[in-house]
Amino acid sequence: MEQVPFLHLGRQYLQIQDDVKREWDEVLAKTAFAGGPFVTRFEEAFAQYCQAKYAAGVNTGTSALHLAMMALGIGPGDEVIVPGNTFVATAWGVSYCGATPVFVDCDEYYNLDTTATEAAITSKTKAIAGVHLYGQPCKLDELKTIATRHQIYLIEDAAQAHGALYKGARVGSIGDISAFSFYPGKNLGAYGEGGGITTDRKDWIDHIYRLRNHGSEQRYYHDEIGYNMRMDGLQATVLEVKLQHLDRWNDGRREVAAQYLKEIDNPLIHLPKVLPDAVPVWHLFVVTAPDRDGLMQHLASKGVQSALHYPVPCHLQKAYNFLGYSKGDLPNSEALAATCLSLPMFAELTHEERDRVVDAVNSYKG
Ligand SMILES: Cc1ncc(COP(=O)(O)O)c(C=O)c1O
User: Is the CB of residue 183 below 6 angstroms from any atom belonging to ligand 1?
Assistant: First the structure.
């Protein structure tokens, strides 16, 4: 039986291969591999796209979070609010700075619950890391109001939400500083690893430019302990080519999501809700079902691939045992982890494949 793939990056590549090969020829001819002019060119295009003043390209989204938090001066003794329901790298950034992630539960949109966020703020809290999980903006206005009231920073983790809109503004332009991942499977993905930071603060971005480059502005002079977290020239050109198609590809994802939302009508399946004022980019289309494993098996028997995002919430990961959380601390995140299932989602899904996903989900009997 022909499989309906969960994701098929090859179909996207076919649309842009001539442009990518032409750009790569240029990078190879100029041997501009680590950082350099192609990275600067992408940074300018990406900042403009995100409606931010500045952007920095780095080697991964995890580094983007780490450097963004360093630029804010987060360090030992500080706390940062992080959703329990996110990819663990949001918390890594906090831990790499020597600070403590404080995990907070999610709301019915699967993003940070704003009441729980405010309740978790202490005198040590330095920032809130709002994640736009699955491509849906979190409640940025409320979080910004809370951050302003407590004189702390708002960080956007936009790793899954390139191009999403919140009240008409791009994610990455609303918080104090934002981090993106360009991991290959992301809405804007490199052909290897990549990450980015956007902000309107020149002093922060300049600090990040130094930190990613061994703490150096002038070669072999190191003003502080830095990192090697530069973006590759080859990745920057892929991202610049792809950026020109991002809105169209996000539209394609929205079309798939609209069909799923309209045509999936199985009472055993709970569909995702869209936040009013948000235009999500559907990095993932996550449904829930009481017997999620049964649903996954049923879909597999119909040749439909699916995946889990994420089976264990951050506060229950072994790596964070030392923080002393236990089961029951974040009930919404835990329930989601136990019942979530991600359906195939990418712009190039054919109409036949989308229909097969809908039919397979609707024929699930529990
Ligand atoms: C929400 C979130 N934050 C951070 C990251 C880390 O990005 P990367 O894999 O590029 O390091 C990811 C990606 O996997 C993510 O989904």
Answer: yes
pLDDT digits (tens, 9 = 90+) for 284-314: 999 999 999 999 999 999 999 999 999 999 9
Q: What CATH number should be reported for the domain whose range is 9-243?
A: 3.40.640.10
Helix H or strand E segment including 238: helix 233-243
Q: What is the C-alpha R_g of the chain? A: 20
pTM tops 0.90, yes or no: yes
Cα-to-centroid distance, 115 and ligand 1 (Å) = 25
Same fold, 9-243 and 246-362: no
What per-residue confidence (pLDDT) applies to 215?
A: 97
Return mean pLDDT, the chain: 98
* Substitution candidate for ligand 1 out of 7, 62, 67 with most atoms within 8 A of CB: 62
Cβ–Cβ < 8 Å for 162, 178? no
Residue 82 phi, psi (nearest 5): -135, 140
Residue 38 pLDDT: 98
What ranges do the domains of the chain cover? 9-243, 246-362
Please give the share of the chain, as a percent, with pLDDT higher than 70. Answer: 100
Atom nearest to 283 CA in ligand 1: 16
Q: What single DSSP character describes residue 187?
A: S
Q: Does domain 246-362 have CATH number 3.90.1150.10?
A: yes
Ligand 1 centre distance from Cα of residue 239 (Å) = 16
